[in-house]
Amino acid sequence: MSVGPLLVLPACTAEEPTSTVGTQRAWGAFIPSVTPAPGSTRSPIEQLATLAGAPPRYLHRFAAIGDSVPITDLDAIADYGATPLLTLEPWTAGLGVDQPRYALARIAAGDFDADLTRWGTELASWNKPVLLRFAQEMNGTWYPWSIGVNGNTAADYRAAWTRMRSVILSAGATNVQFVWAPNVLTLGTSGFTAAYPGHDQVDYLGLDGYNWGDVPGHRWQSASELFAGSLAALRGLGGDQPILITEVGCAEGLQAEMKAQWIRDFFGIVESEPRVDGFLWFQMDKERDWRFNSSVASTEAFRTGVAGMSGQP
C-alpha cells in the first residue's frame, strides 16, 4: 500500500512504554511521519511506542524510484535505535497503474540503472543497516509493476529484481538487505511463487495483508483466513530466510470487539510461525481506519500482544 500526503491522526492514548522488544520476534509500523512536528517535544516514534507499550524495532518508509533518498527519515529511525524498512517503488506516485514507462522489462534492460545506482550510492554512504523492499505486492493488479499489467510477466519480475539488486550492490550498498514481499492470496490477487527471484537474491520474505471488513468489494476475513495459506506458500519456497509481515492492518468490525479479537488472533499467528521474525502494522487512517489504537479495546489487545512477544507477563 502506497501513501500520499500524510497527517498524524491520534486516537486512544496509553501510558509510557515499560517493556522492550524481545530478540526472537519484533514489531514495527508505518507511521505518517518519523520526525517531530515544529514545536513538538516528542517524536512520532516516541508517541507510537507509548501507544504500543514498547519501542518498535522497525519503521517503514515509502519512496518512488525517482525520489531523493529520505536520509532525514532514515537518520531519525536509526537515532531511535530501530531499523528502517524502505519500500522502493518503480513508478511516479499518484499516476495510477497505466504507466508503461515502468514496465518490468525496461527495469530489467537497465533503463533505470542511473536511478538505482543513485539509490545504492546514497544508501552505501549512509552506511547503517536498512531493509530494502522493491516492487511489493506484484501479484495484485494495482501497480505498474504488477504481473499482467503493462505487459509484465513473472519472468520479467525476476529479471527486474535481479537487475535492481545487482546495481544497488555494485554501488557499494553492502549495508542493505533485500525484502521480497507479495500480497496475501485473497480476492484480486494471484499466486506469487513464479515471481520469486530465488534464495540467493532475497534476504527476507515479506507478506502484506489487510482485513478490509465488510465493505463493497471486500468481506471480513479472520487473521487465519487472511494469512495462513500465504504463509504456507512462503514456506513452500524452501530456504531459511526469516519472514516479515511487512504490512498489516485491520478495519473496524460490525461489533466493537471484532477488531480487538482480530488483533489477538493475529498475534497468535505471528507466535505460531517459527520463521516469522516480526511484523509492521500500517498505522494510518486511510482507506479504512487501520490503526491499532482506533478503539480502547483494540489498543489494549495490541499492547497485550506486544508485551507477550517481549516476554512480559
From TrEMBL:
The GH26 domain, residue ranges: 4-305
UniProt KW Hydrolase keyword: yes
Active site: E137, E247
Keyword Transport: no
Gene3D superfamilies: Glycosidases
GO biological process: substituted mannan metabolic process
Source superkingdom: Bacteria
UniProt keywords, alphabetically: Glycosidase, Hydrolase
GO molecular function, one term: mannan endo-1,4-beta-mannosidase activity
Family affiliation: Belongs to the glycosyl hydrolase 26 family.
Protein name per the record: GH26 domain-containing protein
Organism encoding this protein: Gordonia rhizosphera NBRC 16068
